[in-house]
Amino acid sequence: MIIRVSEARVRPERFEAFREWILSAVRDWPDRYPGLVDHEVLVAPPDSLLYVSRWRGEQDLVAYAGEGWRDQPVVLPGEDEYLTAPLEVRHFTVAALD
Predict the structure, then answer these.
(1) pLDDT for 57-83, tens place per residue?
(2) SS3 for 11?
(3) Cα end-to-end span (Å), the chain
(4) Contact in structure between 1 and 55 (CB atoms under 8 Å)
(5) Taking the domains of the chain in order of start, what are their residue ranges?
(6) Do 8 and 24 form a contact (C-beta atoms < 8 A)?
């Protein structure tokens, strides 16, 4: 499993509008992307929002984000009007607690 975290730095005056816009945009993604195990939106008002998604594997991320999935965030049309900086994307795998 690969955990993908996209961080958005949001204009504080647009934060609530962006939160609602993102929630609406990603709501059906598990149906659209079969490799998406689950996802959530984490908020830290007034200016930070994380989109956290868990994927079965690399092939599923390529199908979602393209060959540049490791470095390139997925940017939705119109998203940049809410942001103060480009999206940042990071990936994690789960470390065993054994």
Answers:
(1) 999 999 999 999 999 999 999 999 999
(2) coil
(3) 17
(4) yes
(5) 2-92
(6) no
In the block, which residue shows the tokens 């009007």?
Answer: 81
Number of H helices and E strands in the chain, helices first, is 3, 4
What stretch of H or E contains 20? Answer: helix 15-26
What is the CATH code of the structural domain delimited by 2-92? 3.30.70.100
Query: In the numeric block, which tokens belong to residue 15?
Result: 């934060």
Residue in this structure with the two tokens 């868990």, named with its chain if needed: 54
pLDDT category of residue 97 using cuts at 50, 70 and 90: confident
Q: What is the dihedral of CA 70, 57, 83, 42, to 10 degrees?
A: -140
